[in-house]
Known about the structure:
Layout: E1 22-25, E2 31-36, E3 42-50, H1 53-56, H2 61-68, H3 78-87, E4 91-96, E5 100-108, H4 112-124, H5 130-147, H6 151-164, H7 176-180, H8 184-194, E6 201-206, H9 210-221, E7 243-247, E8 254-263, H10 271-282, H11 288-296, E9 303-310, E10 313-323, H12 327-343, H13 348-363, H14 369-382, H15 388-398, H16 401-411, E11 418-422
Helix pairs in contact: 2-8, 4-9, 10-16, 11-12, 12-16, 13-15
Amino acid sequence: MTDRSTPPPVNELLTGAMPPETVEVMPNGLTLHRFSGGDQPVCRLRILFCGGQAETGNKLISKVMLSALAEGTQTIPTETFADLLDYNGVRIGSDSHSHYSSLTIAMLNHRAASVTPLIASMLAEPLFPQERIDTMLRNVKAQLEIADTEVSTLAEYASDALTMGKNHPLAQRLTPSDIDAITRDDIIALHRRMIVPARAHAYLSGLLDETTIDAVRTLLSGIKATGPGFDIKIVPNEPEPPGRVDVYGADTLQSAIAATLPSVSRSHPDYNDLRLTVMALGGYFGSRLMSNIREEKGMTYGISAYLSGAHEGSYITIAATCDKQYTDDVLREISLEMTRLADEPPCADELSRLKRHALTSLAQTLDSPTSISGYYTTSLLVGTPPDYFAAQQQAIKALTAERISYLANEYLDPTKLRIAVAS
């Protein structure tokens, strides 16, 4: 009979090394990153064009433009193009990042030779039908109007201004009137300027065969520059002084809290250890903030803390939602836990749980060719160093209670918080 009173042994997780990617530069200057793996004959191609939120001055226009590429071309009508994508099992998505805008194509390997000419036509001769663009913009505006009624969104807007500076290009709040001002001519002009292969990177991942790779090479090599492109615009963060800002306007019984601390850059020797220290504070279900504020006191359903590093600078964020009556109590408990982490750092079982969680999260990066390719994409988007994966493993294994105590005392000063509260 199985003894269920004794927990099973916990073995040490061996994460391993990050597999290398293959990098080649196309004749037109576009850089192709490849990683082959997995067990299914599918692939994902993600093309990142230089020019994102900071360069365009609008968080959504490049996303709309790249989405509208799939609405037909000068040689393939809208309905026919949609049917061809469906027939070939293609899924297309787009996104806007700080300094890049991405077009993602998921496809079956055996259909790559049929799909890549469609993508080439999209990029070279998009139709941009007025009615489709109008529909997209209406949907984006509706989503924005809904988001603007949520306390978490309002807190995020206020927090961005506190963390980066109110005039920072990445802290500008997009309004429904900004969406109304976007025209088809703006979409066309952005397309002409952004499609510059010499400033673009493409990431191909999946169980790749030579036929698929050759089809993608042909696609990428055929992209022609249609304009001057964008120069990446890095504006360092200029945080506002520590303090609290209250924002009102949401019709809700909840408050959202977003509190930040400027921090060290990814190149700083303390960065990886500090990331783990912040994880101990609020980065997983057994963290100090979750255990105290959610589990013990029941003041919030969820609370988190994380360290973010970007080209503009790094910062620690603590985010939570709670009933309005608990707002000040939650802020007080956050301050107490920041101080307590320095005075009473994780030891024994708590430290072991933290390390296991950190290693497990890191190991998930190796789950699939797409996640591995995503790791390399992140290096371009936010500037992670080449040895980031190995450095994280080393930091986790070497982490001690004394190190956490030192870093919490050095960097987690609650009097320096920039606090945004929306209600």
